[in-house]
Write a structure and sequence with these properties.
4-stranded antiparallel β-sheet; 25 strands; single chain; alpha+beta; 383 residues; 21% helix
């Protein structure tokens, strides 16, 4: 006769069932019978304290082949050049400098998280005056400052310019922007940021795309890995994870394990329109109620063809210009109503809009009209 399971066995079974239900809640039902696309938590959030810091500095680029600043138009370049020469023991006070081989530049860099002294970072160099090209130049020692005014790195080195400019008296050829350049590993970190990761009491995650559903799925995934009660949702942007047990004093390992968890992100349905370029991006969850659409394709053309009236020979008349305007109004024919919508998929929606046979800019007006009619169930964002 089979033995009845003990309380310990029932507890183990209940734990397994609860874990399976929690996993199903995190994964969610598959959409349309297709495989559920999951994303690493690492690609969805940023961790509090693990961030980059912006640095900026002002310096001089020397060694240019006559393409530097005109000192008469850039007094700050002349002042900086004289100051640098005096620090090197050369007196230039009262002298008029006429060099075209120097340019004032702004130097920017991004300080990586937890930088150590001696770490090399890339820098970007941009001309500040009226220099025409930085090709062949070398950046002189430039301190890079943080938002607190302290110098955290020092930049120096030859510039790498991926553009050029050449020309003569009547023509000029320019490729790219020759007044910007980069220096690979051009800055050396000299000051470390004072932040001890192992001293924090909780790991705070900030979602790159704030959403309550995604935040709850991340918290459920973390609780499924670490145990219930370790993660909680603060708001649609923030998820806090308590540090304890084996992870005390070893926060890096905790963050590494959280990063590798997979969840299915969620977001509101959105249609993004860039009117400047005519680009339209439609999200997968966008739905349109059943509507009928037609597009008039109205074109108004105005042509100015002025005529010149000449007087008769040996007369006292004057030559006058007589304006002549030709206005043509053309409305596209053969446009019929096209039915779009009815809880269709993204592909069906695109096919229905393409059936109208209009360009991207006309499509923008159509989407705005559908939104105004209350048939577009998505956030229409125009940038």
């Amino acid at each position: 006769m089979p033995r009845f399971p003990t309380d310990v066995t029932w507890a183990a079974i209940r734990a397994v069932v609860a874990g399976a239900l929690a996993l199903l809640a995190v994964l969610g039902p598959p959409a349309g019978g297709t495989a559920v696309a999951q994303t690493r938590v690492k690609d969805l959030v940023t961790f509090d304290g693990v961030r980059r810091n912006q640095l900026v500095g002002y310096g001089l680029v020397v060694g240019l082949n006559g393409t530097g600043d005109r000192l008469i138009n850039a007094p700050f370049t002349e002042q900086s050049l004289k100051g640098m020469m005096e620090r090197l023991g050369i007196n230039t006070r009262g002298e008029t400098l006429r060099t075209r081989n120097v340019a004032a530049v702004m130097v920017t860099a991004s300080l990586p998280p937890f930088p150590r002294q001696g770490t090399a970072v890339d820098v970007a160099v941009s001309a500040l005056g009226d220099a025409t090209s930085l090709l062949g130049g070398t950046l002189v020692v430039t301190p890079l400052l943080g938002a607190d005014g302290e110098a955290y790195a020092v930049a120096q080195g030859p510039l790498s310019v991926g553009s050029f400019s050449a020309g003569g008296a009547a023509a000029t050829v320019t490729k790219g922007v020759p007044t910007t350049a980069r220096i690979a590993n051009g800055a050396i970190v000299e000051r470390e940021l004072k932040f001890a990761l192992n001293d924090i009491g909780a790991v705070r995650m900030a979602l790159r795309n704030p959403d309550f559903t995604t935040a709850n799925r991340i918290a459920d995934a973390v609780n499924g890995r670490l145990g219930a009660g370790n993660a909680r949702v603060v708001d649609l942007t923030t998820v806090d994870v308590r540090i304890g047990g084996a992870y005390t004093g070893n926060v890096s390992r905790l963050i590494g394990e959280i990063e590798q968890l997979h969840v299915r992100p969620d977001a509101i349905a959105r249609v993004v329109v860039d009117e400047r370029s005519g680009t339209i991006v439609i999200g997968d969850d966008v739905r349109v109620s059943r509507v009928a659409i037609t597009q008039g394709n109205l074109t108004v053309r105005v042509v100015e063809t002025p005529q010149v009236s000449q007087p008769q020979p040996f007369s006292n008349g004057q030559t006058v210009v007589v304006p002549r305007t030709d206005i043509q109004v053309q409305e596209g024919n053969g446009r019929q109503f096209v039915t779009v919508g009815g809880n269709v998929s993204l592909q069906q929606l695109v096919n229905g809009l393409n059936a109208l046979g209009v360009g991207p800019r006309d499509m923008v007006a159509i989407l705005q009209a559908i939104k105004a009619a209350g048939a577009l169930h998505a956030d229409l964002e125009i940038i």
